[in-house]
Amino acid sequence: MSTGQRGEPPSATAGAEDTDPRRWWGLVVIALAQLMVVLDATIVNIALPSAQHDLGMTDANRQWVITAYTLAFGGLLLLGGRIADLAGRKRTFVIGLVGFAAASALGGAAATPGMLFGARALQGAFAAVLAPSALSLLTTTFTDPRERGKAFGIYGALAGSGSAIGFIVGGLLTEYLNWRWCLYVNVPIAVLAVLGAFALLHDRPGHGGARLDVPGAALGCGGLVAIVYGFSEAQPRGWTDPLVLALFAAGVVLLAAFVWWQTRAPSPLLPLHIVKDRNRAGCFLTMMLAVIGMFGLFLFMTYYLQVILGYSPVRAGLAFLPLTAAIIIGSTQISARLLSHVAPRILMVPGMVLAASGLLLLTRMTVHSSYSGEILPALILMGLGMGLTFMPVFATATSGVAPQDSGVTSATVNTSQQVGGSIGTALLNTIATTSSAAYITAHLHSPSEKATVIPVGVVHGYTVAIWWAAGVMLLAGLVAGLMVTARAPGHGVPAEAPVPESAI
């Protein structure tokens, strides 16, 4: 779950909030809004084959439906936390809801691929405003430690179950209505949440001293967009094309300028002392690398199940449930129980090896693979591995942080997830489509062979990309083993630590 809170001291709110009988209804409103944000990470995956066919997207460009959302979300998340500080949580929360609903309606009505990509980017931008203010409202609404633990338990459970709900709802809406309803469904949810916010949530004034680091946001987000765009253009143009190389160079220069600016900005988006800590830097990098492989898997498996195996959207959504269940079990039943007894990397390194093993199993899939015999074991292995990794990464990255840095540190973990998702989707989609095209060109000798050669070529592209994803997972394990040197914390994950959003 995305975070960006700068919670006030409990003394500021305890007197009012402890006696507020409506605070649990307020939690329903906050959770409803956050569920909407989490759903959009997976609900569109199931609808993507239908949307691609309807709007005439190319295979190279289809990844922008996912990437536009994650890029805007991750690139603007730190700025969203600052906006919540400046304008006030409730006001920012409502603005985020209204904007997210409007962007969803625009995407549902999209007549061209570009219109859908733009709407998804707008959704991500408003999600970056909405998510930090939602969590900030939660921290200021529940000040009693026991109540706060329960509230965050409910809130955190949404991250684990949100993806499952997204896959199933996406399948139902796509199959029985239309893929556009996967976006339209956000409108009534947002309307309910806005009405609830006005009736149940208490506003708090913003901080006049908070400043927005707009140059930092422009440099950071611009650098990420240039790199992801470079990956997407590598498929049609080739990796050595001047435009592709220029995009990569521009991305590196912009990100270097972002780092330079953060050392001089009056109110930096990302205070560099946070990432200079070896354990935190290792956690951020491990999370980003892990999610690169995971988001690519979502994209390929959605197409494999629906296009190659002929699953309906609902059946495809249900096929992802074991992955989600394994992530929840790995996070809550294994990592959360062992984290107080073992060093974080003792969980993270085996977790990444397990996830890589699951991906390696998937490299053997063919156009005739069976779900129960070949796909299901791989999804369970990957889910357990990701679950083993998520919890210690989040707990280690946010432990021992000064109170004034807690919000930006949590937001940085989530930013690393969204950036990993953006890069992974673009890079692996490019590898898959390039490999498929090369295979089909080499093996297609006559038009009569299309029906057999093309599906085999498409699956070949998927397996090549999954090999790369497995390598990235192993690299994440290596990073965790070498950089995350923290010892066992001696206590469990704090009750207030939410499950990270990429646990979907």
TrEMBL record:
InterPro entries: EmrB-like, MFS, MFS_dom, MFS_trans_sf, Sugar_transporter_CS. The keyword Membrane applies. It comes from the Bacteria. One of its GO terms (cellular component) is plasma membrane. It is a multi-pass membrane protein. GO terms for molecular function: transmembrane transporter activity. It is found in: Cell membrane. Pfam families: MFS_1 (PF07690). The chain crosses the membrane at residues 24-48, 60-81, 93-112, 154-174, 181-202, 214-231, 243-261, 281-305, 317-336, 342-363, 375-395, 465-484. Residues 26-489 form the Major facilitator superfamily (MFS) profile domain. Keywords: Antibiotic resistance, Cell membrane, Membrane, Transmembrane, Transmembrane helix, Transport. PANTHER family: BLR6921 PROTEIN (PTHR42718:SF46), MAJOR FACILITATOR SUPERFAMILY MULTIDRUG TRANSPORTER MFSC (PTHR42718). This is Puromycin resistance protein pur8. The lineage of its organism: Bacteria, Bacillati, Actinomycetota, Actinomycetes, Kitasatosporales.
